[in-house]
Write a structure and sequence with these properties.
By secondary structure, the protein is α/β, with parallel strands linked by helices. It is built from 18 helices and ten strands. It folds into two domains: 316 residues, ABC transporter type 1, transmembrane domain (ABC transporter transmembrane region fold), CATH 1.20.1560.10; 167 residues, 3-Layer(aba) Sandwich (Rossmann fold), CATH 3.40.50.300.
Length: 603
């Protein structure tokens, strides 16, 4: 089986992509099936040779029928040849398309997969800043246009160029120079006019694409925040914003259509002038005796064969330019550099228990805003360390750094003594399970979302993980059970139910390192206590980092770190920190007071 290239697509380091660079990018994917490509091109040439031969045979038929001493066998033989050539043209054309369809579809598939993989390889920073609607529309248009570009080029542009070359060659060798000059000049004027006007229209098309993506982004962003829109009664406001964007798009689309009409009118005028001049010269030749009726039929057939595809060639050129414009935006995604990449000599993390250490870590998302300052602590294999602190103190950043969504600016994070920058990202992340604060689920079944923790897990293992997360009884009461759809981003489930799914998913992954990032924040007190006992059980023997706001969830940690504005201000066990009377003791007293007040208010 042939394989398409699966290395990263080559992209220019800076500046706008050029059409030739786009073609160079596509070529390896097409040439991966070079046997099919060569045979398809051979069929293409044979189809055009037979197509050009048809008018020449037809000329002989006309001349034979008009001759006084024509033998009946001659026209019959020519008629048979005419039929065979007609059939051969269609046969070779269909053979070419049958051979090339696999090349086209495999190229589209391979490039779409490369873009998809590259997007997943980009950093969290890119995905936090992107707009989903515009991104998906760019990919959709780009992948669709790849197939169009290849089809237009191989099925239409090349055959037309071959046919033009054959026709001009026959005119030059069989008739006076004026025929070739008129046909050639018409071609040059037509192609030049088409290219100039189409390049102008391409700028309009690019603007229309940008406005289309912007409108789509606005619509999807509004729909994803459906509840927020409803909370603030802002349906009309969102509609006005969307309509304003669509109004700009409408104006550009009208401008695009007007320019298209001007282009079509100009092309028709050039073709009409060229055909009229050719037929005038042919008529003069017949009346002068230098050409036969068969010649005028031949020239007329050639002009029809030449200018009909030439007229279509103008449409094709416009479509190719538009396809290149669409592909340009998709390939622009490929020019996004991978902020986090494996080192050339990166090693896989060995299976087994893991010890984690943050060694004097400093980090900032932006140069002007430092998040972590000289954070230094260790989690021995099988131990449990908790990090507490007020919102914005940098707690969740620790989990993101351990997953290597970002790289530290100073210091290092190590697993079993090896800097995680020296490990492959796949092996590192395979060793870590996380229950995040904000659980986002796939728009699929509950079973699928739990099994996502380990896609090869059996149904029994999925059910067992759900039981451990105190989720099975809830699922059993649902009409569709584990096949219940959770909706977009899991919106059909409550916050606590989504959190339980996340816990079950992490349990199913069964990693040596666990991160609980506010794992019980969405649960009520009763559910929190039930799940907390399970978390305590599954954390036994695993290296666990607990990021928490509720101090009651970290009382049994081997060490508690108090983070304040990116710095560790206290560390120790629960009782030791209470006795110290510092920041932790104050937080504990405040939370105990809040819980007491909450109980007093409960009827």
């Amino acid at each position: 089986m042939r394989r398409t290239p699966h290395s990263a697509l080559p992209v220019p380091s800076s500046g706008e992509r050029h059409d030739w660079q786009t073609v160079k990018t596509l070529f390896p994917y097409v040439w991966a099936f070079k046997g099919r490509v060569i045979f398809a091109l051979l069929c293409l040439i044979l189809a055009k040779f037979t197509n050009v031969a048809v008018p020449m045979v037809f000329k002989q038929i006309i001349d034979g029928l008009s001759a006084d001493k024509a033998m009946m066998a001659v026209p019959l033989a020519l008629l048979a040849a005419y039929g065979i050539l007609r059939f051969s043209t269609s046969l070779f054309t269909e053979l070419r398309e049958m051979l090339f369809v696999r090349v086209t579809q495999r190229a589209v598939r391979a490039i779409a997969l490369s873009v998809f993989r590259h997007l997943h390889a980009l950093s969290l920073r890119f995905h936090l800043e992107r707009q989903t609607g515009g991104l998906t529309r760019d990919i959709e248009r780009g992948t669709r246009s790849i197939g169009s570009l290849i089809s237009y080029t191989i099925y239409s542009i090349l055959p037309t160029l071959v046919e033009i070359s054959l026709v001009l060659g026959i005119l030059a060798t069989r008739y006076e120079a004026s025929f070739t000059i008129i046909a050639g000049c018409t071609l040059v004027i037509y192609i030049s006019f088409t290219i100039v006007v189409t390049n102008w229209r391409t700028r309009i098309r690019r603007e229309a694409n940008e406005l289309d993506s912007a409108a789509n982004s606005r619509a999807i962003d509004s729909l994803l925040n459906y509840e927020t829109v409803k909370y603030f009664n802002n349906e009309d406001y969102e509609a006005r914003r969307y309509d304003g964007q669509m109004h700009l798009w409408e104006d550009v689309q009208v401008k695009s259509q007007v320019s298209l009409s001007l282009l079509n009118t100009g092309q028709a005028a050039v073709i009409a002038t060229g055909v009229s001049l050719i037929m005038w010269r042919a008529t003069v030749g017949v009346t002068g005796g230098s050409m036969t009726l068969g010649d005028i039929v031949l020239v007329n057939a050639f002009m029809i064969q030449l200018y009909m595809p030439l007229n279509f060639l103008g449409v094709l050129y416009r479509e190719i330019r538009q396809s290149l414009t669409d592909i340009e935006r998709m390939f622009g995604l490929m020019s996004q550099n991978r902020e986090i990449a494996d080192a050339p000599d990166a090693l896989p993390l060995a299976l087994g228990s893991c010890a984690v250490a943050f060694e004097h870590v400093g980090f900032s998302y932006e140069p002007r805003r430092q998040i972590l300052f000289d954070v230094d602590f260790a989690i021995p294999a099988g131990h449990k360390v908790a990090v507490v602190g007020h919102s914005g103190s940098g707690k969740s950043t620790l989990g993101r750094l351990l997953f290597r969504f970002y790289d530290v600016q100073s210091g290092a994070i190590t697993v079993n003594g090896t800097d995680i920058r020296r490990l492959t990202q796949a092996s590192l992340r395979r060793a870590i399970g996380i229950v995040p604060q904000d659980t986002v689920l796939f728009n699929d079944s509950i079973f699928y979302n739990i099994q996502y923790g380990r896609p090869d897990a059996s149904r029994e293992e999925v059910v067992e993980a759900a039981r451990a997360a105190q989720l099975h009884d809830f699922i059993a009461r649902l009409p569709e059970g584990y096949e219940t759809k959770v909706g977009e981003r899991g919106l059909k489930l409550s916050g606590g139910e989504k959190q339980r799914v996340a816990i079950a998913r992490a349990l199913l992954k069964n990693p040596p390192i666990l991160i609980f990032d506010e794992a019980t924040s969405a649960l009520d007190s009763k559910s929190e206590k039930a799940i907390q006992a399970e978390l305590e059980r599954i954390a036994v023997g695993r290296t666990t980092l607990i990021i928490a706001h509720r101090l009651s969830t970290v009382m049994n940690a081997d060490e508690i770190l108090v983070l304040d504005q990116g710095r560790i201000v206290e560390r120790g066990r629960h009782q030791t920190l209470l006795e110290a009377g510092g920041a932790y003791a104050q937080m504990w007293a405040l939370q105990q007071q809040e819980e007491a007040e909450s109980l007093d208010e409960t009827p």
